[in-house]
Amino acid sequence: MDTDYEVLIAGAGPTGLLLANELGLAGVRAAVVERLPLRTGRSKALNLQPRTAEVLDCRGWLDPVLDRSLTLLPAGHFAGLPLHYDALDTPFPHQVGIPQARVEEFLEDHLAEYGVPVLRGRELTSFRQDEGGVTATLLGPDGAERTVRAGYLVGADGGRSTVRRVLGTPFPGWDGRIGMAVADVELVAPAAAEAGSAGPGEAWRLPDLTPDPAGVAFLLPLGDGVHRLLLGGPEQQGVDRDAPVTEDEVRTALARCPGPPRELRAVRWASRFTDAARQAERYADGRVLLAGDAAHIHAPAGGQGLNLGMQDAFNLGWKLAAVIRGRAPDGLLATYHAERHPVGARVLANTRAQTVLTLPDPDAVVVREVFADLLAVPEANRRVAAMIAGTDIRYPMPDAPDHPLLGARVPGVRLPSGRGVLLAGAASTAAAATDGWADRVDRADAGPAVGAGEALLVRPDGHVCWARRDGEAGGLRAALARWFGAPRPGPSPGIA
What is the pTM of this model? Predict the structure, then answer.
């Protein structure tokens, strides 16, 4: 294929940059195009959920991200109601408090290891696809247009995605009902308890989203005298989403925040948002795919947006690499939409529900009280916590023997090579069956992960695609072929 790049990614946010790292790890010739000439430094999203921490740890990338973090929050929330992460089956029972800008910084810097360029100051304005690839038009910083050719195009270019618009993909959903805003603000002489850098000694609090006709006002320390302000009151309703957030709005919200009086020094950055919820009907159309906010938008309730997009990228990257390398079985790329669209739909549903629970309406207040009572039940709390944390995601695995772990992720598994792995107990006879896939599937002693004689086949994204109980047999070679393509020529001993 005569192309400039095997994959062109539009958008240098966390979704696009994580996808670029996944493709770079697999040796794919990729590039990221971003219309902004420089990183903005805006904090934007502020957390990594447990499943996203697992994703980064799976590739060995979590530790350098933690070095850039502000704090760990050992809880989540559903509309401000506490969720207990210590009951979750994960090595990371907490949220990582980190501005989105720092996540992007790490991911972009790490691309240098693979030689994947981020082409800043270049805006994708149009494209056309054919059987052999995608031809995209980029507008450069000098106003000149350039045409590039790629095997595949991935739109990770946000909620107002140009890729989605040009593709013509329907984006059905619900218009926003309420208006809110966020701002990074500098305060004059902040209180001692809020000064300096946030850290373990200054644990972040859960937001107070109790319905109040006066609106929501919540302040979170980001360090060095900078705070994140969440504001949603009468002043934000009916205002155009693109209208600037005024200093008067910020001062009014600051006066509503609990604690000592605060004086505004400056607004570093501010943006409006609504509770609009929309999802692309298709995440893939020929050689063009959508991920992150280009595929779905929703209210930032529970802190799920950045995480949903990064997990899209983690699901897509290894599949797209396998297709490009000619190792993918038929239909592998179609599983991206099949697996991730339902996950996105569920996030849209739970964020809409959370919005309802924060409305200052008498009926909503009663429902919130009932829901708070339910979350006091440990099992109910654990179930909702796992949904928000992303640790309960279980992908359908057709034609595989039933097993409690089938389709679920394996907590703590590390796959720094980006390949699959067969985790086998000491007495398992399954290992020999992977001989024909040795270039795509590693073998590892499962240790305490499985019992003697048992085995788990784990995809590059950490999800189990085949599992065997002691005394059972069959299906491993079929699962290997289904997820990793045809074996190399030659004998492949082992179970069927």
Answer: 0.94
